[in-house]
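Pasting as-is:
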Amino acid sequence: MASEDVKTSESAVSTIVNLAEEAKLAREGVKSPSYAILSICKSLVAGGVAGGVSRTAVAPLERLKILLQVQNPHSTKYNGTIQGLKYIWRTEGFRGLFKGNGTNCARIVPNSAVKFFSYEEASKGILYLYQQQTGNEDAQLTPLLRLGAGACAGIIAMSATYPMDMVRGRLTVQTEGSPYQYRGMFHALSTVLRQEGPRALYKGWLPSVIGVIPYVGLNFAVYESLKDWLIKSRPFGLVEDSELSVTTRLACGAAAGTVGQTVAYPLDVIRRRMQMVGWKDAASVVTGDGRNRASLEYTGMIDAFRKTVRHEGVGALYKGLVPNSVKVVPSIAIAFVTYEVVKDVLGVEIRISD
């Protein structure tokens, strides 16, 4: 009995000590491990929801953009945003407008979750190093440092989910008249692996990495810098109690999306074209009516740039820019606002701008 009393007393003391330690950590502003894990999970959920909602909202424009990027200039079916959307509706129906969106969401949910989480963690690490280097504990991230954090987040997220992006591009391009049909994401992945090998899943990865640095980096840098400027300068009465309205945050996200996508767009075109290389039915798909069925061959990113410009002109590097501009502005804006709203609902205290 005595030993049991001692064990009970030790257990009670241990519990009290643990509670005291957690209380001390809370007073000092340090979160307990369990709180940190919960915060990470909530942040990942918020990022995933933001990605899924934003991409589904603009799925028809996303599909049209890819079709414009890869179609053969000598046999065109899609001549513009309105005409292209009407053509898809007429030939493939409502479902045709959202073809590839399931795979896109399967890719973008983990991609967005990893991207937003990576950005927050990279921002914290870079800010800590910057404060240590300057000796100023109150120092804040500069636009250039935010650009670096955003670039790191983009590369990590893109690399982790690139195989899904590759097959999503092919699923999006094929039409009802394509000679061979991928039946879905897993069928496409297995078919590419079997016919072209594992390296094929990373075709176009290099221009994607190069493009993601200015695209994602500028998205985060412009968005955060605009928010900080609006909060500090309070122009036109847009800020109340140090908080921006949803409309103002949407505008910040829209501006960020416009800058990022314009700078990186040529690399996105080259990436899509490289993803078609090795697909034996690609020529039939991208040439529309099947004329000029010569196989699509690029030896690398530079070769793809050179052949595209030589055969189609510099303007070919911006094919699909109009629907992409219409798409990317609301997409990025919705993603940022959804992310912050979901975080608020889940009770996550750490903001992107922290």
